[in-house]
């Protein structure tokens, strides 16, 4: 199915997978037939001895959501010299992990406020004030955190309603693009790798347990984002981190984190909707604005396509050496006006005789030709012996009539040969 040689597979990373005793490699691969790029996640040295886990794979393959990297296929291979398990996902170029976006030491000025310098012991009050000061100066905007929460809960809602669990809600397994669009990746890997260990436990009970773990992981992730520290979610730092969130952000955010971390009670992702409240509509409005901007850009491309078709028709008519046994077909009748119009649009010169390269003039003329306006223009032959005053409506009629002759002749030829084309 996929091109499996060095020239078409690019290794992106290699690392342990979420603390498990397995090594995972990431590749960019190309489909043989379609040329579409995919992301291959290889589990090293893994032998699949129980195929019951493939039922989970089928469920994941059916799951499609805007905040999920969709699983396409899972297969085993010995192409790497061992028994490897390959997970095929959609490829999203230009993304980075949530960890590298907000918790990377490579960021300018980033430091984890919960990691103390042990060489210079300080009183507890100093450390607490330093934490607060650091968070105030480097905190993430609260609307951005709610934006992440809405996207993550939207993905979890779909996953949980499909009787599945994410099990990889980790900053290293969440990718983000330049427009802060989040996607959960590595879905389905845990269900395959850890399936044999849990094969004797009731399936429904197990999924419910993992779904509760998803919500706990979400609470820890939001807490880490609010504190800009992955160390903040450690048990010994949890109380300080929650106090920091209460001092820095609104009570709504702290209450949501407290709810997600309250593992003693049964939680549901749908219960988070009242806590999100009207912020959901803000996010919805931003999405609609983005959709409008995409529509505007698409309409520009549609206009470009319309003008391109006009240029194709003109090019097929102008300078055609022979048609229906007429060697001068393109130089006579209506076609002569189209030839002069071609010079009028593309071969203008200024008063010094130099080429006049005005794109606006070209676009304006082609738009008027497409509409067929009654505006008249003067067309002058290259020897300046002929001057024609015609309207764009007349030129449009000449263009359609001349192209129609070509299309009819082409249709007749293909009908005789057993195939048919339909001119636009």
Domain module tally = 2
**Total number of strands:** 10
Counting DSSP H or I runs of 4 or more residues, the number of helices is: 13
CATH topology call of the largest domain: Transferase(Phosphotransferase), domain 1
Which runs of at least 5 residues are low in confidence (pLDDT < 50)? 3-7, 419-424
Spatial order of the strands forming the largest sheet: 1-2-3-5-4
What is the averaged pLDDT score? 85
What structural category characterises the helix and strand content? Answer: alpha+beta
Summarize the structure.
By secondary structure, this protein is of the alpha+beta class.
Please provide a written account of the structure.
The protein has 424 residues and is of the alpha+beta class. The protein folds into two domains: 10-277, Transferase(Phosphotransferase) domain 1 (Transferase(Phosphotransferase), domain 1), CATH 1.10.510; 301-417, Helix Hairpins (Orthogonal Bundle). Helix content is 47%, strand content 13%. The protein contains 13 helices and ten strands. The protein has helices at 54-62, 98-102, 124-138, 142-161, 189-193, 203-227, 235-248, 251-261, 273-276, 279-317, 334-346, 359-371, 392-417, and strands at 10-16, 23-30, 37-43, 71-77, 84-90, 96-97, 174-176, 182-184, 376-380, 387-391. The strands form three sheets. Strands 1-2-3-5-4 form a five-stranded antiparallel β-sheet. The protein has a three-stranded antiparallel β-sheet with strand order 6-7-8. A hairpin with a 6-residue loop joins strand 2 and strand 3 (37-43). Helix 4 (142-161) packs antiparallel against helix 6 (203-227), helix 6 (203-227) packs across helix 7 and helix 10 (279-317) crosses helix 12. The longest helix is centred in the C-terminal third of the chain and has 39 residues, at 279-317. The protein is elongated and about 95 Å long. Residues 3-7 and 419-424 have low confidence and may be disordered. It is found in: Cytoplasm. InterPro entries: Kinase-like_dom_sf (IPR011009), PAN3 (IPR030844), Pan3_CK (IPR041332), Prot_kinase_dom (IPR000719).
């Amino acid at each position: 199915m996929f091109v499996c040689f060095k020239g078409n597979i690019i290794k992106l990373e290699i690392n342990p997978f979420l603390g498990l005793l397995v090594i995972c490699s990431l590749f960019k691969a190309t489909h043989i037939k379609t040329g579409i790029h995919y992301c291959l996640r290889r589990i090293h040295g893994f032998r699949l001895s129980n195929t019951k886990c493939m039922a989970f794979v089928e469920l994941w393959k059916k799951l499609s959501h805007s905040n999920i990297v969709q699983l396409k296929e899972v297969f085993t291979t010995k192409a790497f010299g061992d028994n490897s398990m390959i997970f095929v996902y959609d490829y999203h170029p230009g993304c980075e992990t949530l960890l590298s976006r907000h918790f990377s030491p490579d960021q300018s000025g980033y430091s984890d406020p919960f990691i103390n310098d042990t060489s210079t012991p300080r009183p507890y009050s100093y450390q607490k004030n330093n934490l607060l000061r650091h968070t105030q100066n480097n905190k993430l905007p609260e609307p951005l955190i709610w934006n992440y929460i809405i996207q993550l809960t939207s993905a979890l809602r779909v996953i949980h309603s499909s009787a599945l669990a994410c099990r990889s809600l980790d900053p290293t397994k969440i990718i983000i693009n330049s427009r802060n669009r989040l996607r959960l990746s590595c879905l389905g890997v845990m269900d395959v790798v850890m399936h044999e260990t849990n094969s004797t436990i009731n399936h429904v009970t197990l999924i419910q347990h993992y779904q509760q773990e998803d919500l706990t992981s979400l609470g820890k992730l939001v807490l880490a984002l609010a504190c800009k520290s992955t160390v903040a979610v450690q048990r010994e730092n949890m109380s300080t981190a929650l106090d920091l969130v209460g001092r820095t952000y609104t009570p709504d955010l702290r209450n949501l984190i407290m709810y997600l971390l309250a593992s003693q009670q049964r939680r549901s992702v749908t219960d988070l909707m009242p806590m999100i409240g009207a912020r959901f509509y803000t996010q919805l409005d931003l999405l609609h604005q983005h959709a409008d901007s995409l529509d505007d850009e698409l309409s520009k491309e549609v206009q470009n396509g319309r003008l391109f078709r006009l240029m194709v028709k003109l090019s097929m008519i102008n300078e055609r050496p022979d048609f229906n046994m007429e060697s001068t077909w393109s130089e006579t009748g209506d076609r002569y006006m189209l030839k002069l119009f071609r010079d009028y649009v593309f071969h203008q010169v200024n008063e010094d005789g130099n080429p006049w390269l005005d794109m606006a003039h070209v676009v304006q003329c082609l738009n008027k030709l497409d509409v067929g306006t009654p505006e008249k223009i003067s067309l002058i032959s290259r020897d300046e012996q002929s001057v024609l005053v015609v309207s764009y409506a007349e030129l449009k009629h000449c263009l359609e009539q001349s192209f129609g002759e070509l299309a009819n002749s082409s249709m007749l030829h293909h009908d005789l040969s057993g195939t048919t084309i339909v001119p636009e």
